[in-house]
Design brief:
Largest sheet of chain A: 11 strands, mixed
Oligomer: homodimer
Number of helices of chain A: 11
Order of helices and strands of chain A: EEHHEEHHEHEHEEHEEHEHHEEEEEEEH
Shape of chain A: globular
Low-confidence stretches of chain A: 6-11
Helix content of chain A: 25-40%
Distance between the termini of chain A: 31 Å
Largest interface: A-B, 20 and 20 residues
Amino acid sequence: MSWTVAGHIGAEAPQITVADIPDVARGAAILGAGGGGDPWVGSLMAQAALAECGPVRIVAPTELGPDDFVLPVAIMGAPTVIVEKPPAGDELVRAFAAVERAVGRKVTHVACLEAGGLNSMTPIVTAARTGLPLVDGDGMGRAFPELQMVLFTLDGIPSSPMAMADEKGNTVVLDTIDNHWSERIARSATVDMGCSASIALYPLTGEQAATALVPGTLSLARDLGALVRRSRAEHRDPAEAVADHAGGRILMRGKVIDVQRRTVAGFARGTARLLGIGADEGREIELAFQNEHLLVTELGSDGRAGEVLASVPDLVCVVDVDTGEPVTTEAMRYGFRVTVLALPAHERWRTPAGLELVGPRYFGYDHDYRPIEG
Amino acid sequence: MSWTVAGHIGAEAPQITVADIPDVARGAAILGAGGGGDPWVGSLMAQAALAECGPVRIVAPTELGPDDFVLPVAIMGAPTVIVEKPPAGDELVRAFAAVERAVGRKVTHVACLEAGGLNSMTPIVTAARTGLPLVDGDGMGRAFPELQMVLFTLDGIPSSPMAMADEKGNTVVLDTIDNHWSERIARSATVDMGCSASIALYPLTGEQAATALVPGTLSLARDLGALVRRSRAEHRDPAEAVADHAGGRILMRGKVIDVQRRTVAGFARGTARLLGIGADEGREIELAFQNEHLLVTELGSDGRAGEVLASVPDLVCVVDVDTGEPVTTEAMRYGFRVTVLALPAHERWRTPAGLELVGPRYFGYDHDYRPIEG
């Protein structure tokens, strides 16, 4: 598959149009690993922006030049709140412009901070409304709950200057000593802003973006989204098609029998228990999440935690067992019948430095990371 | 009394020198109404800056011209913390410079946000280190615990752009829709920064500063500080001298018999109970504070709250019964023998709009303000 190409000769640039959005949002929500925001909310926002402002040109990271200046954008906060209070107006563009003012330089390209049903759409909205091209890549190859959890941090790239904007009209610009401090101060401001804020951060030179971004995230999202749609139409298992395509595997098919969820400290934290169905009957697993799924544990017949089936940084993805539609952590409900998949994380997350930043121990689990393939 | 005047002919500008600091800090701490920071910490900071950078020129608000651009500075946070973690280096100047960058204009004069043992010194430090003159005035005529509690708010002057800096090197710039939002977001960031932060806010045109500042705060602080020093030397009651000079009255002389204090949500909150001594024997009063003293209540013989003797916006000041040295809320201890005075607030605080912003009901007390003279 490839992006829609503008038809006029001499300007055959790939672009993203209203028609591309449902597949991209669906696939991005799968890559969001339970987080990254709701694809339905994201689709509506992106389609409205594209309908109003026209298609957005897509650029590969390798096409970026040394004079280019790239700015990722996202929505920060608790998905439980964001789904009820999506950005209403110009928050993304205001955050974007605040970084431009702080740096004293015009941005040439928008980028995705993370993959996700909403957070792969917010850059499309920003690109449409600013008229800038969008880089086909992101900072994580998935979604993670905290700001410092991007590959940029491994490269020593600062999140500052970072800007935040809310729907009321407040703007905050941070210039911090490291990316953990950005997370800390921005998280408090996000809570003040009502648990969701539009953010622009990690301004990147063209060279930095070319090496630090995970390339092809939007293309991969679109391909996965289309694969789910086609598998469904052809009565094949959408989850199996996704696992095959992305080099992952299916952990269990099951029914959600319990969800514990709290919106706390600007995050949606909790656990979900699933009882196996079909070939998995008799099994029980528990998913632990903080916006994104962090850890999947097999439960014994006594309800005690047993083997860890998958953990961060690998992607734990939950999709509807029949339709393959991604189920985000904030949408998970009692009775949902889902397939739980694990997809491999970007290789840089599996290094010692990567695991220190986003491995299970960072999140407080007494567990050494094991790749899902092993 | 008058400021030290530079001796060389043709440049007889009033200035503040190392020798002026003890009186100014003492008097400012009295005007701080229990808050505004510790005068000892403040004196050390200001004297170090003046010794290093030379005297600071003092300018009356009426001397400001239309092309002048005035920026107040302060330390924000819980006095209990600030006294243990005063600004160590360039935090004030970094906050100051961040507002200049955000506005895109060089500041011509530094000003005081509030009167206080520390917060009348922080502008002196900033003026010394930037080489700028200091305006003899402040935004309150006393100290108050929250950012929006300045006369500027009554004039519709925004606190934005506002900057905050910590000793670690983090800087935050806020651009908010109103001054209450600045307080809300900045308070969270202050807590993140370790419960104290250097701030620069309410950038003022020369015209705004000339009308919105309480004029002569530094001169009044110096006069009150000198009065206490001289009264003490002449074996007169320093508290009576202060009350006479400032049009206030003495509420009680007593011994501190209990202090309840919590550092919470970035504030030092609590109450202190005092048992009358000398002519006041048999009486008991309670002081309620949030950084600053808010309310003084006479207690009945059954320990129940009786008449309110004084409340915000009037100044409730506590000084040592013998030396007249101001006692800040964070320094108050069991056994201290003190005089409690009330001084009249600036007339604009006594208007309906002023009382809405800083009256007893804003702080949650079911009490209608009554001026201390009445």
